[in-house]
Amino acid sequence: MPKALIVIDVQNDFCPGGALAVPGGDAIVPGINALMAEFDAVILTQDWHPAGHSSFASSHAGRAPYDLIDMPFGPQVLWPDHCVQGSEGAAFHAGLNVDRADMIIRKGYNPAIDSYSAFFENDQTTPTGLEGYLRTRGITDLTMVGLATDFCVNFSAVDAARLGFSVTVDQSLCRAIDLEGSLAAAINGMGEAGVTLR
Ligand code: VGL
Ligand code: ZN
């Protein structure tokens, strides 16, 4: 059974010094590179927002980063401007073995909707195309690593499990943002969705 390593958003803006730095985000890079050898396929995801994206606090008058607002598809945490298309912050961490990737999937390019998951935008309906890519390659088993555990890794893992993939999240190669208990909630939710956590 072909198995894929899905590396979520290991980009400069999520690493120390970046616009939305995840503590220790860069520490997972060597371990992710080493893990790539164990997989038939390696897929990288890249958070890829146009300037002025609706998930940016700067796009909402009177709002600050980490405020929670209501959006047409549900609640949205407002983020600092990050991973703007073509910027240095949106680039992969320089140490990541990008050359090993078969596929790079970008998400968050729709100005009106955020996309934490590698499979669906946050309306939970609009596909990114990753499901079709994996199925047409006959890939059934996914291991996910990367940033951030409680947002993009979590949403990607839960969606993949719901789609019927066998999903493992390697927590030692993930790091979390952890806003008001979001890490504990994510671990709970992934477990309930049938994701194997190790
Ligand atoms: C992410 C917040 C905003 C992530 C992306 O990669 O977890 N988090 N955009
Ligand atoms: Zn983002």
From TrEMBL:
Q: Which GO terms describe its molecular function?
A: metal ion binding; nicotinamidase activity
Q: Which UniProt keywords apply?
A: Hydrolase, Metal-binding, Pyridine nucleotide biosynthesis
The pathway entry for this protein reads as: Cofactor biosynthesis; nicotinate biosynthesis; nicotinate from nicotinamide: step 1/1
- Report domain Isochorismatase-like positions: 4-195
Broad class of enzyme this protein falls into? hydrolase
Which SUPFAM superfamilies does UniProt cross-reference here? Isochorismatase-like hydrolases
Q: Which GO terms describe its biological process?
A: pyridine nucleotide biosynthetic process
In which family does this protein belong, per the annotation?
Belongs to the isochorismatase family.
Record NCBIfam families: PRK11609.1 (NF008623)
The protein, known as:
Nicotinamidase
State the taxonomy lineage: Bacteria, Pseudomonadati, Pseudomonadota, Alphaproteobacteria, Rhodobacterales
